Amino acid sequence: MSEPVFLKRTIVKQTLWSEHLQEERKLRIYLPPGYNEVLSYPVVYCQDGEEFFNFGRIATLAGQLILEEDVDPFIIVGVEVNVAVRTQEYAPFGSRFKQYLACFAEEIIPFIEHNYPVKRTPDERVIAGDSLGGSVCLHLALEYPALFNRIISLSGAYYPESQELLAQEEDLSWLSINMVVGLQETNYETDTGVYDFVQMNRDTRALLESRGATVSYREKDGRHLWGFWQKELPESLLYFLNT
Questions:
Q1: Which one, of 60, 112, 55, 28, lies nearest residue 237 by Cα?
Q2: Is the pLDDT of residue 161 over 80?
Q3: Most CB within 10 Å of its CB: which of 92, 97, 157, 164?
Q4: DSSP label at residue 122
Q5: How far is CA 158 from the centre of its chain?
Q6: Going edge to edge, which strands form the sheet with 75-79?
Q7: How far is CA 173 from CA 87, 147, 170, 211, 213, in A?
Q8: Model's pTM, two decimal places?
Q9: Structurally, how many domains does the chain consist of?
Q10: Residue 137 in contact with residue 149, Cβ under 8 Å?
Q11: Residue 93, domain CATH
């Protein structure tokens, strides 16, 4: 069994103070095999950081991509969230939404770039999220296009408010997004209602493409669960990291 080699990675836990949110925010940082502070690495930022590591197994998947698929080593930053206020931070109608976007772009990014040798151009920076985490990635890119233009969206929760904001955009030719949604997500109950995620993602894809965005889109058998997203994560990561 060769898998243990994938476990030989470093995961650092950090805490930063957010002026925008007026609280501490925890981060998990994956440093790849052979990590060297003299080098400079692409970076993947993940919403729901704890779940990406625990249920998405992103650190193990990253090791496999680097050691087996010959992907250049990259750093992963998981931004943890308090589930009790997740919708308030991730949804555009949330009471903490603006503050969270500002925290991410104006506090977390500079903190990571000050402390770790990550590359600093939008083409070397990916943001990833599942469900509402996917849609908040899109909102981050729309709000801070100089920082983000590459998005991984796993069953993005593109509620009507998100689609309305997207519809106001005119030119998204700078944006590249990798979207996946499960065909069994047509009647999924969230804390704000029951949604057809398949139709929601199809509509969002159409909005994006009509504004010039580059969209890689796939529908697969799957439910609104980490068991589905974990299987799809390598393909989504390869889309941006294999070029």
A1: 60
A2: yes
A3: 157
A4: G
A5: 14
A6: 10-18, 23-31, 75-79, 43-46, 125-130, 150-154, 176-182, 214-220
A7: 29, 15, 9, 7, 5
A8: 0.95
A9: 1
A10: no
A11: 3.40.50.1820
Q: What is the CB neighbour count within 10 angstroms for residue 38?
A: 5
Kindly compute the dihedral angle of the four CA atoms of residues 22, 125, 116, 226, in this order, to the nearest 10 degrees.
Answer: 70
Q: How far apart are CA 199 and CA 163, in angstroms?
A: 12
Q: Which residues contact 1 (CB under 8 A, 6 or more apart)?
A: none
How many angstroms from the chain centroid is the CA of residue 111?
A: 18
Query: What CA–CA distances, in Å, run from 181 to 165, 178, 204, 225?
Result: 21, 10, 12, 11
Q: How far apart are the C-alpha atoms of 35 and 33, rounded to whole Å?
A: 5
Q: At residue 3, does pLDDT exceed 70?
A: no
Q: Please write the tens of the pLDDT for every residue from 28-75.
A: 999 999 899 999 999 999 999 999 999 999 999 999 999 999 999 999
Read off the pLDDT of each residue in 166-173 and give the average, rounded to a whole number: 97
Instruction: Tell me if 142 sits within 8 A of 168, measured CB to CB.
Output: no
Q: Which is nearest to 51 in space by CA: 124, 149, 141, 155?
A: 155
Query: What's the domain range around 77?
Result: 3-241
Residues facing 177 on adjacent strands? 151, 215
Query: What average pLDDT does the chain have?
Result: 95
With bands split at pLDDT 50, 70 and 90, how would you rate the model's confidence at 1?
very low
**pLDDT above 90: residue 194:** yes
Residue 243, CA distances (Å) to 11, 71, 147, 211, 235 in order: 25, 9, 19, 24, 13
- Return the pLDDT at 9: 72
Residues 98-122: tens digit of each pLDDT: 999 999 999 999 999 999 999 999 9
> CA angle, 179 as apex, 229 and 204 as ends, to 5°?
130
